[in-house]
Each structure stands twice: as C-alpha cells, then as structure tokens.
Specification:
Length: 228
C-alpha cells in the first residue's frame, strides 16, 4: 500500500450505511484522489451522525408527547388529552353523522379503600381498574382518567343501547377484580358506577361529559340507597 493511501478510502472497508450514502450521492471513490476521498468519507460520516441525532430527537419528542398525554399513574389518557380526543371525535361525528357516546365512571366508596388500606393500595386499585377498562373496550375506544377515582370512555360509532350494555359489562369487569396490594391486608374488590350519555348535534365536549357525569351520579345514588 502506498504511503499516501488512506485505508478508509477503500469502499469495502466502510460501513454499509456509509457505502449506501456514497452510492446515493453518485460518487465513485475509486476515481477520486486520496484527499477528495477523505473529504467525501468525512462528509458521509457527518451526515450519518446528523441523521442519527435527528432520529433520537424525534423519539425524544414522541416520548415527551406520550408523557404529556398520559396519566401519571394509570396507563390511560389524562383529562387534558381525553377532552382533546373527545372534541376530535365530536368533530368527526358532526361531519359524518355517526353516533358517539361517552361513559363516565366513578369508583364506589374509594375513600374507604384509602382509609382502610392506605394510599399505595388505592393507587394499585386505580391502576387495576384502568387496566380492566382498557382491556374491555375496542381498540378505537378511548379511555382516560379524569381525576381522582373518575374515568371517562369515548365510544365512537356506538349507539346508546350498545354503550349501556358496554357500561354493564365494564361494571362487571371492575367488580370481578380481586386486588392484593403489597403491604396491605386482605383482598380489595372494587366496584364502580357508570353513566352513559349519547352525544347530540350541537353539544360540546363539556356538555356530553357533564351529561354522562350526571347519569353516573344518579346511578351512584341508587347504589348508596341499596347498600347495606
């Protein structure tokens, strides 16, 4: 090998990414003098570095957006993201005339769980309930934690009878949970009250969510009246 020949100038010694980039540039390294070849290789290395940096920034942005949209405790949307998605679904329902329903859920006697078992146990209950809700809806449905022990669900393209049936199914799924939190004595079996509201043309996201909340409160009142 000549003293002035750069071993990196041999294209067969370059990484596949660098060879692909140089080919895309239409450069024939064999026809370049050593100095020009070295400059091309350095340029290709810089391009690949910048490409990797951009990919990392995009991933970091996606991760940040996911964190901003999701509840800090439960693996579902937070209230801000939930209301944004509800506004989006209302816009689609208005445009296409499709049905849309909202379910509002509130855990029954959740304060008693915290008082008897501690807040860590209460958090475990919230996480389990969120998981049960997510596992029992369609992929197109949207679940969010609205605050405290309240959850909301958006069911696009679903009629009110279908949503009422779904609410009963979800209530049964929550009641079927048997949670044994770490450091807590006994098994916790939660229950929740569900309210359904069908969106009507002209209603805002706040309107339909308030209607579902009102329906949930009426159901919770019935539960309290029949409690032993």
């Amino acid at each position: 090998m000549a003293d002035d020949q750069d071993p990196l100038s041999d294209i067969n010694g370059l990484s596949e990414e660098r060879r692909a980039l140089i080919r895309a540039l239409g450069v024939d390294l064999e026809k370049l003098d050593p100095r020009t070849r070295a400059a091309v290789e350095a340029f290709s290395e810089e391009v690949l570095f910048l490409r990797e940096a951009v990919a990392e920034l995009k991933q970091s942005l996606a991760d940040a957006e996911a964190l901003a949209d999701h509840d800090a405790l439960c693996p579902v949307f937070n209230r801000r993201a939930f209301e944004r998605e509800l506004r989006r679904e209302i816009a689609l329902a208005e445009r296409y005339g499709s049905p849309l329903c909202v379910i509002f859920a509130d855990l029954n006697r959740f304060k008693a769980v915290n008082d008897a078992h501690g807040h860590a146990a209460g958090d475990a209950v919230l996480v389990s309930v969120a998981g049960a809700l997510e596992s029992n809806v369609r992929e197109s449905d949207i679940v969010g934690r609205l605050g405290g022990d309240e959850f909301g669900l958006i069911l696009p393209h679903a009629s009110r009878p279908d949503c009422e049936a779904k609410a009963r199914e979800l209530a049964a799924a929550v009641h079927a949970l048997k949670i044994e939190p770490d450091g807590s004595d006994g098994v916790i079996q939660p229950s929740a009250s569900f309210g359904v509201a069908a969106w009507r043309r002209g209603q805002t996201a706040q309107d339909v969510l308030a209607a579902a909340d009102e329906a949930m409160f009426a159901r919770k009142t019935q539960v309290r009246q029949h409690a032993p």
